[in-house]
Amino acid sequence: MKITIRLIVSLVLVVALVALVFSLFQVSSERRRLTGELERRSLVLADSLQESISPLIKSNAVSRLNRIVNRFGNRERLNGVAVFDKQGSLLTSTSTLKLGFTKPLAQAIDSVVENRSIGSFMTIDGQRMYICIIPIIGEDNNITGALATFNDISYIDVRLREIWKQNVIRFLILAVLVVFCTILVVKWSITGPIARLAAWVRDLRTAKPETLQPTVPLRGDVLDPLISEVTHMAKSLSIARVRAENEVKLRVQTEPLWTSQSLKTYMQAELAGKKLFLISNREPYMHVKEGTTVKCIVPAGGLVTALDPVMRACDGIWIAHGSGDADREMVDPRNTVRVPPQEPAYALKRVWLTKEEEDGYYYGFSNEGLWPLCHITHTRPDFRLEDWVCYQKVNELFAEALFEEIAHEESPLILIQDYHLALLLFLVKQKRSDARVALFWHIPWPNPESFGICPWRQEILIGMLGADLLVFHIQFFCNNFLDTVDRFLESQIDWEQFAINRGGHTTSVKPFPISVDYNDSLETGGLILDKSETRDSVLKEIGVKSPFIGVGVDRIDYTKGIPERFRAIERFLEKYPEFMEKFTFIELAAPSRDHIRKYRELMAEVEEMVEKINWRFRTKEWKPIVYHKAHHSHEEISKYYRIADVCMVTSLHDGMNLVAKEFIMSCLDHDGVLILSQFAGASRELKDAVIINPYDIEEMAEAIKLALTLEHTEKSERMMRMYTTVKEHNIYRWAGKLIGELAHIRLSDG
Ligand code: F6P
């Protein structure tokens, strides 16, 4: 639209300029023509009077002259005439003229001396007139004096105004035509074809190679060369994507099973026992006060679930925000504590933040800005300058803590986690170009249009491109990221290699779908539990009597689709009342980010919903939803996974969602069903789940019915296939592959 406006404004300005110049020219020639006409009329008059007034001037017969001039007072467009002597002094004038000439008139003198007529505009008695002075020549051919005609020029002004008016109307008509034609031409030849081209390119981003031809015809003369270039580029891009995907598949097929031990061996052998430095906002162990004692808890969330087993296997230093109220009491002078408390395996270094820093950086910019920005759940992000300032400052604080630890490490291996620390990569690389730095982005990466609304989008991208290796869960997020950089940053993108070069530094962008722990002792040690026994005791503990159990495990977050899930349960009971008193859904909900209004509102909404649904369906000894709002340990959660017939993961948008994978790994008798949102990254790997759209309540209600009535053999075959997938693609394999990739990356600016 901007280009159309620019084009219209410039065309209208040019037309206006031409119209103005033309009008000025027309007005001035019309004025010249009309005054010339006046002069000619005056000369005719002077000629006709010459003979009679010349002797009278000579003899100074003023009263006779007066009679003559008065006869000419009332002619059309003539206000009167006056007679001057040779010296330019007024002899007489038409009586209606109020001439106050006390001195000789300069123009009259000039006319006599130069023997020519002189015309000029003058205001007499408040009225503008055109005065024409003509020398009077006697019989002896000598000049005897001068005759002046005083002409009414109001009609000239009227005529000139008329010309201006007509030209303005002409200009307006022309301007409207120009605007109209420009819009039509631009739409037909430029914006229309560009919009179609953009739509096609957008389709291509996700399309398969066989749909490389545009779905609508693309025509647009001027754009033809561009269309042909884009077609070539689209082909190369598509081929590159297919290659990348094949490569991932190939890598996957040839791998042995990774365990905690093989990761340890790998780190020692391949990396010469190099330490791993892991940095995240969330700490893996949090010390909190409980009365007079201090308790150590493991915070909820995928990051800790995935990375604690890795750090246990690798040793190294995990740097994170010390957010527990007893954290300071537990650290040494380097702010470090060995964890896990029962069998210390690695060091946790805590970074301290003031309340204001935590507010601006964690609650504000990270979780009210970047979190909703990257999750397409229709929750509007809030960006505030003061939060952004805090975010930058805290990223610097993390950098200082890291520099302290890597001061004596040569080419340290650094693994930075998530959207809280997007700027840290650049800060690290600036000071330690020998470091090998990777960023793992745990949440989705949106399309460029969505990301583009962030006021500091370029700064964030530049920060992230400090990484040597940038990792997302799935190929789709990598594609989105490259598209975003392509849109907003000056850089070179290698679509074949999925790499970005900016200022001589190269960042490789790769998908590594994160996963969960795999503990072979559970299988080999014969720890498969008797489901009915466990079920009875667990259900007894919470006072539930129900043959079918559903489970949900979430941080209370608007991205998890908790209200949608409860609506589906309500609809399921409405449609299939035979499941009344036979199905109970246990929701283990961990409060999260509760200083943010949207999270508090969600908590209230969810509680109200549970109350409403339970009130509607409850019987004396049964209710459909058991809602446990509390922090739950992994041991507690896996108890519920094991007894569940169905686990529901209904995220509206999710990077991966490790609840889905944890459920599969805990369900050792392979007798459960996973209902999984198509918008969770996990749905790309777990094809045997019952895949649903969480916005479609009917579909979800049907999915619950299917899960509870699925034949045992099919249930266990599906579960077995998913179990094998997760087992083979466990977190040790993820870490081994990712760290291996980072360790062998060629540093571009080291
Ligand atoms: O998955 C995104 C993430 O921020 C993880 O980094 C973290 O494990 C989880 O969400 C929990 O969030 P928070 O650290 O804000 O409690």
Short description:
This protein has 23 helices and 23 strands. The protein has 750 residues and is of the alpha/beta class.
Describe this structure in words.
- The chain is of the alpha/beta class and 750 residues long.
- Helix content is 50%, strand content 17%.
- The radius of gyration is 45 Å and the shape is elongated.
- Residues 524-529 have low confidence and may be disordered.
- 6-O-phosphono-beta-D-fructofuranose binds at residues 282, 301-304, 418, 442-443, 555, 592-593, 655.
Number of helices: 23
- Main beta sheet strand tally, sense and closure: 10 strands, mixed
Query: Spans with pLDDT under 50 lasting ≥5 residues?
Result: 524-529
Q: How would you sum up the global shape?
A: elongated
Mean pLDDT reading:
90
Give the beta-strand count.
23
Distance between the first and last residues' Cα: 45 Å
Structural class: alpha/beta
Helix content: 40-55%
Which ligands appear in the coordinates? 6-O-phosphono-beta-D-fructofuranose
- Tell me the Rg in angstroms: 45 Å
Strand-residue proportion: 15-25%
Spatial strand sequence of the major β-sheet: 10-11-9-6-12-13-14-17-16-15
